[in-house]
Amino acid sequence: MHVCRAAVVSRSRFKPLQWCSLSPGLAIARALGNIVEEINKDRMMSDLDDIYSANILDLAANIGRVGRLKAPDASAEAHSKLCGSKIVVDLNVTNGVVSDYAHEIKACLLGQAAAAVMARNIVGTSLNELRGIAATMKRMLKEGGPVPEGRWADLAALELVRDYRGRHASTLLVFDAVSRALDEVDAPAAA
Q: Helical H runs in 52-190?
């Protein structure tokens, strides 16, 4: 085995030459591996920058209806095991239309942005339309389906998440919770 003096190099920093017991070829391979690792980290951060657009930031910053309802007709919770995001939703329904809504959310910007659009549009929405919007969002992210339209068009800002499967759960969190709450509303009617 050769004793060589090798530099450990990466794109973001240069560590001074140091003594190592690696062969020159292995020392170079390790240095190149460090460079590739740094490039991959930079790409990942750049990709995240792409999905956290100004529109997403604006939606998340203006989230409404935060809190809990005093006497909800239904409540449901959804949790993303991958990122730890969590939402609890409460809703009241009158004649098949949501008449009041509130939520408590601890989620990433994507989850907050989706929840903000939900909070802004849910009151006055029929239960069938809500189920349709949830299905449209799942198709948009998982199958490349069309973006929501009409008053739900702001959800199109989340279309970029399509390419980041690990972010689907947090983006769909509010839809999962609302769907569970709708199931709770439907349960007494089915009995």
A: 54-61, 109-121, 127-143, 168-190
Q: How many residues in total does the chain contain?
A: 191
Structure tokens that stand for 50 in this block: 């792409």
Distance of alpha carbon 132 from alpha carbon 118, whole angstroms: 13
pLDDT at 2: 41
Average pLDDT value for residue range 170-184: 97
d(CA 126, CA 115): 17
Radius of gyration of the chain measured on its C-alpha atoms = 24
The strand pair at 86-94 and 4-9 is best described as unpaired
Q: Are strands 86-94 and 74-79 parallel, antiparallel or unpaired?
A: antiparallel
| Residue burial 121-133, b: 16+ Cβ < 10 Å; e: rest | bbeebebebbeeb
This prediction's pTM: 0.74
Asked if 65 and 121 count as a contact pair (C-beta separation under 8 A), the reply is no
Residue 141 has pLDDT above 80, yes or no: yes
105 sits in which H/E element: strand 97-106
- Cβ atoms within 10 Å of 187's Cβ, excluding its own: 10
The answer for residues whose C-beta is within 8 angstroms of residue 32's C-beta and 6 or more apart is none
Copy the structure tokens of residue 6: 């090798």
Does pLDDT of 89 surpass 90? yes
